[in-house]
Amino acid sequence: MAKQQLARARIARRLALPVLLLGACIACLVVASQLGASRSLNSDPTAVPAAEALLISGRRLPEAVAAGAVDRVLGDEIAEAQANLSPLSCAIVLVDGRVVYSLRPDQDLAPGHSLLALTAHAAIDRLGPRRSFLTQVLVEDRPTADGRVAGNLYLVGGGDPIFMTYNHARSFRPILITRTAPEELAAQLVDAGLTQVDGGVVGVESRFDSERSLSGWPVSYLESGAIGPLSALQVNDGLVNRAAAAGGVAERAENPAVHAAGVFDDELERLGVVISQPAAGVDVEAGIPDLVPFGTVKSAPLADIMFQMLAVNDAGAAELVNKELGFDAVSRGTTRAGLEVLLDVALEAGASLDETPSDASGLDPSTRISCVDLAAMITGIPEDHATLESLPSVGLPGVFEPLKGTEMVTDMRLVGGVVGRASGLVGRTVNESSTVAVATIINREGGPSSADLEFQRSLITSLDLVAASVDPAVIEAVPSQ
Asked: Which of 22, 352, 364, 457 is most buried, by the most CB atoms less than 10 A from its CB?
């Protein structure tokens, strides 16, 4: 439906919108929400086309609104921001699938972290919201009566993206409260009587391939620790030290599985277990001997992991979950296999992507998507789907910094933020009888400007701010002229 409406909107003659009409357009979108209570870049980057929109009919607005309620709420904020907006930008707003505002909606841009919404939806849709990741400890023989293991302890990764120590979780702002604790697994073994390991702790990462990073990721993201080395067995995002604790350059584990084994070794020794050999890893192709279970720690449900991933834009979690999608679909834990699943889910939701995304996190600037496809994807999620409850609310810490502290009247959920040269946002209302959806992407060399971010902030906040001033019963949407 969104595609059909957009096609109708394109037929309308293009014109430059003065401030009042832009504000009125956004008022239409917000008022409608109150009805329910909640391939290439532009070939001419210097050209700034006029917005295409369905506008409020001024003759039907209440006197208070016509007299300047929109101006009182918005002032000159959004007009000033749009005047300085990057030409590499797009925006679209829909109410119950009907386009009420659009600005270059078909322009393909690097979506940045807004792509995480697709990754989260694909994960919850295909793996299930209650799916958990298991990290296991296996041994060749059970411990003797005095708690001694004759051989190695094998720490086997299950692709858990939140396997992290207490100190690592607390180093983030906001603090990461959803984690799988290696401390808990170590304590479990000690409680079972473990006192000594004649061998060592051996990390096993065979569930996924050994591709640590993607060629399209800028080196700066790797150095900053925006994403660590990928592995089916990693602890603390595969980082030995975060950038904040290592002179501004993150210290990445050369072998994430060996690093995880070493962290687990240290925790066992802290609890008094004697371990004879240093931590090691096992070659993925070499396999491991027949083993018996000794301990298991299970992650939080996938829905909770996805909520945290979206709230803090956790790129590493997105890439590991994507590999799990590949493993689930074709028994190959590879990035490529997972991305094929992402494409399928996007198409099922109503997007019309021509190409498979380059990654699952939005870090790769070569990924291209339009605002209309982002909006189609988010509105294509059924009202009763578990994904909606994993979308973070506007105003939560970590959700698009310019909106920090914002209180919304409607239950607006939002995904995205700034990464590199892109600021992408996609969101929708939930728990409302009428669905308002918004998508906006801005690309600029050197990163989005303050005016770019102000446009996005104003676009989101005005949806709520104008709603309180307008009687939805007298609003009429008409084609622009």
From this structure: 22
